C-alpha cells in the first residue's frame, strides 16, 4: 500500500483519490478550505483523510490538482515540506478557447513547478490527458506521463500499474510541454465526434 496526498478538492482530485483507495492505497486530501477537503475525503471514502494546508503531506507521491494558474504558487507555499516527494502536475494551461496552451517550450507548468520546488523533489506531468469521467471508471486505461528522473518515473509507473493503469513513459522534463499539447489533441477529438468518453492510448508493438 502506498500513501498519496492530493492538493486540491475538485473533480479530478476525487477521481484520482477514489481510484487509488479502490486499489488499496491510502489517500490524504489537502485544501485551503478545510470544509471542502473534508467533503472531498467523504466523497472518496475508504478512510481517506484530511491534511493541513501548508504542512508536510504524508504521501510520498503528491498530486498538484489545482487550476494551472495557482499551481506554482501552491507549491511555493508548501516549500520545503515537499522535499523528497514526487510531485505530479495534472494541470492543463489551456487558452481561453481551449484550442492551445499559454505555456511555451521549456516553460511547461511542470517545469515552472520544478524551478521553485525543493531540489530533491521530482516533478512529473500526468493525468492531464485523461478526462475525469474516464478516470473514474473501473476499466483499464493508459496514462501518458513525463518529467523527473528515470528513477522517479519508474516509481510513478509502478503506482499507475497498481491502480489498473498502463504507464506510458514519454520521457524527461522537456516532454512535459508536449503533454500539455497532447491534452489539446484530446479536446479536439472529443469536440469533433469522439465524445467525452474518449481516451488516448498506444499500440506498443
Automatic annotation (TrEMBL):
InterPro entries: NAD(P)-bd_dom_sf (IPR036291), P5C_Rdtase_cat_N (IPR028939), STEAP_metalloreductase (IPR051267). Residues 3-93 form the Pyrroline-5-carboxylate reductase catalytic N-terminal domain. Keywords: Oxidoreductase. The keyword Kinase does not apply. PANTHER family: DUDULIN-RELATED (PTHR14239), REDUCTASE (PTHR14239:SF10). This is NAD(P)-binding domain-containing protein. It comes from Gryllotalpicola koreensis.
